[in-house]
Task: structure prediction
Amino acid sequence: MAKVKGDILIDIEKCKGCELCIDACPQGSLEKSRKVNNKGYLFIVKIEDNCTGCTNCALVCPEGAITVYRKVDKEKKQVAKITNVTSDITVTVNE
Amino acid sequence: MNEKNMIDEERHYSQVIEEESVCTAENIVYEKPSVLLDTPMHYCPGCGHGVAHRLIAEVIEELGIQNETIGVAPVGCSVFAYNYLDIDMTEAAHGRASAVATGIKRVFPDKYVFSYQGDGDLAAIGTGETIHTCNRGENILVVFINNGIYGMTGGQMAPTTLPGMKSTTSPFGRDTQTMGAPIKMTELIANLPGTYYVTRQAVNTPVNVRKAKKAIMNGFKYQTLKKGLSFVEIVSNCPSNWKMTPRDANKWMEDNMFPFYPLGDIKTPNKEN
Ligand code: SF4
Ligand code: SF4
Ligand code: SF4
Result:
């Protein structure tokens, strides 16, 4: 199974703390911070490392404050296959 | 703590760039469109206007028509729409956006022209302009944001306010005996032969946002066919004047607005003409 890893960046100065992204996130990755931004809003932070990069939070954000990233990690599978063949080969995974 | 340290700490707080981060340019799957400027929007937290603006910007960017598009901003909460969209825009007198858009389209028939109007603008003071623009079948797109209340002026009753809904000018709830029933503008203008595509959407959930984007995309594309007016209503919220949190406002909208203003296409090119 290819591993999907997502992440988001939140522009905390744009965020107005409306919490709509919290409701939209199927993973429950988001929560309100206890800090305020320069406008005085409690902005949003990612509290869990389980984001799948589904873009739901960004779609409902009225401020366009969220950028979503997703990476499908195919290399891991490859590494497992090769090491089964012979133990002499050392495999380095490129970034 | 000086300002720079505070900013650094906040950055850390919002989990910016770690070492094995996937946050690199090639992994971007969703980003704010560049047609939507970085100017902070004046809308209240959670207001649907922000999403609607972003969808229009996304469509313009995807169609590559940034230089070919002219927008008309209304009077109401979205009066400053031209500050947020990186396209040519003009401001119309209250309710007259579709009339102004008509003029622009007739002078520049090959440009993409749209008006962006709220319910007070389009359904109250601009009813006449709206109906006649639709009836003439101008080849423009009208984006109608319906939140059932006058937002900018402080929550007065609009023609679209639901029966029984409280506003500052209907403090005991809208009484349809004395105040009339809400006008369903979208159904009304769908009956006119000049309209080509009429639909009602919302922007409260990711699914609805995707559908609304599709509708706006159609509205822009159909302009090239020159077969009539496209009308996209977006049922939206007004947390401030509904006096609710954005989350509650969206819930209230689902429970009360959607049954009265059902979502979906009302007139599509395949169904009729
Ligand atoms: S991209 Fe999807 S999973 Fe990740 S934070 Fe946003 S809504 Fe949650
Ligand atoms: S939806 Fe956008 S503005 Fe609202 S809390 Fe989330 S990041 Fe902030
Ligand atoms: S008053 Fe209502 S419609 Fe206007 S910006 Fe605020 S929430 Fe949005």
